[in-house]
Amino acid sequence: MNPILVLGGGPAGLSAAAELAALGAPALLVERENYLGGNPKRWHYSLLAPDLKPAEEILGALLSKVEGNPKVDLRLSTTLSKAERSESGYLVTLKSADAVETRAVSAVVLATGFDHFDSRRKFEYGYGRFPDVLDFKELEAMIHDDRVVRPSDGKPPRRIAWILCVGSRDIQVGNPWCCRLGCAVSIKQAVEVRQKHPEIDAYVYYMDIRTYGLWEDLYWKSMQEYGVKFIRGRIGQITMAEGGSRLLATGEDTILSRPTEVPFDMIVLASGMEPGVGTKEAAALFAAPVGPEGFLSPSLSDLNPVDSGIPGLFYAGAATGPKAIPDAVTEGMGAALRAYQYARR
Amino acid sequence: MNPILVLGGGPAGLSAAAELAALGAPALLVERENYLGGNPKRWHYSLLAPDLKPAEEILGALLSKVEGNPKVDLRLSTTLSKAERSESGYLVTLKSADAVETRAVSAVVLATGFDHFDSRRKFEYGYGRFPDVLDFKELEAMIHDDRVVRPSDGKPPRRIAWILCVGSRDIQVGNPWCCRLGCAVSIKQAVEVRQKHPEIDAYVYYMDIRTYGLWEDLYWKSMQEYGVKFIRGRIGQITMAEGGSRLLATGEDTILSRPTEVPFDMIVLASGMEPGVGTKEAAALFAAPVGPEGFLSPSLSDLNPVDSGIPGLFYAGAATGPKAIPDAVTEGMGAALRAYQYARR
Question: In this predicted complex, what is the ipTM?
């Protein structure tokens, strides 16, 4: 059997490659970066919501099944430059710094994932201009290193705000969809901060709190056990106050129906999820349909998000829309199964 | 290979049985009811949120892979009365009206699903006492039959309210978790009603609107294209008004911070999801750990919701928590894959 191409080495791709190998099918795992692990690795995710399991442990479980596995031909720092349907699957051209190679593969799993919204595009929040306005990925690394301080002066903050839906549910920036994870991850961060530093006040500005399903437990606990405060409202602007030593969040409290203007030492932006660069490239290479949001559109024949409707092409993970890691891992299994069935048909 | 037991014939179980058969593994599909299709079939789900695909079409795709499949030994109206670990998997005792049978199976997939919250338990809403207070499952059937009328007098309603989170996010009734689907399904129903009957006003009472991910599109459209109105607030009580000809919803509008009391012709309750009877029974039979909510707790070794942590035992669908059909179907694939690997180890 020719190998099955898995494009993308994040949680979904790792899961797909691991399952293919377990089924005895050769996998060709191609990742554009020089490391495996996708966004969780890139941004040093610390503990994962809602169970506070260490991201490294979860990724480690997946990586150990893939790295060194004789059934997995692993290509880092490699992209796809061409893909062509063939009778037995696809002919794909792999491109790395030192080689261009064309390979016959028997099926393809696209696990090309998402990119975080670039918070600089939300200009009025001052990200990239005000050092104490952070993206929540940056706070994630700070929490991981147990060093939550203001980048401007290295001092511990007394009061932190999280602003949800930055680059999500926002028609102005062209991203009307919800990122599915910003609420849970922000609340998780607020809980972690309050656990270790009860002297820091934590405020969360939200439109709707979307800790769906059993994640709701995290939301309750954050209020009742950790005293995280929630303010329903949209922050319109962040400015510098007190001679540049603090930040001022201005907006509307939609519960109290009045303007709000509150000083903070640090403000954390929950940046949304967009189709990844690799997802856009793959959609073009494989002529795969995308929805209005730019994510790959599955065929949904039985509602599963894995079948593309194109012979030999399968999807896993956030390439088809914002997704939590458990779903990405499960879809990796589903895509591996379908690709395996196709390859041995 | 001894067959792999799939317990539960809803979307997750159908998916698991279909995938096992496709892998060439014999499946023993056991369902307590006398039909396949689970809750979508039981409650006559009409069009599914958010894509408005007919539930029958989706179920049909799954059913056609299972019914009449020589690899699937299908047992309707059958329950499990005993389960015992054996060297090669499990010994399970099946019980139906006319037979008790013990079978050796090589692995087990629990796809025992959820039950809808019984809205009568939310006594103050009058469900079961006031004929025009419906559960949203009942409206689903009305929409399916294109006959949206008041049960009390058969007249078309002029004004309908949906109350979200009935038996969800509610500590009083002991269900603090979120059902994950009540928002999307209610909004979908409001859109369907407004599409066909633009003269009917549609109001949705909510705490948070949780149309997560790409489902957000449905929420926007419901407001902008279909004029569905959203009121943030909790209805405390429903009473009869105008001599019994209308319903009165009393509560608090938490945006306007004032009491609200609005008459409606019909009120629809978005009833939550609880662990199914079959899920509770299976947890006991297999000594499988459950979380505080009563759903099965996966081991989450790599965050996937499929591995139980118990040898030979795997989970799929809403047995591990409230879940949409696409996720249930995908988990059916994952569980089939894992069970297959275990059975052929």
Answer: 0.94
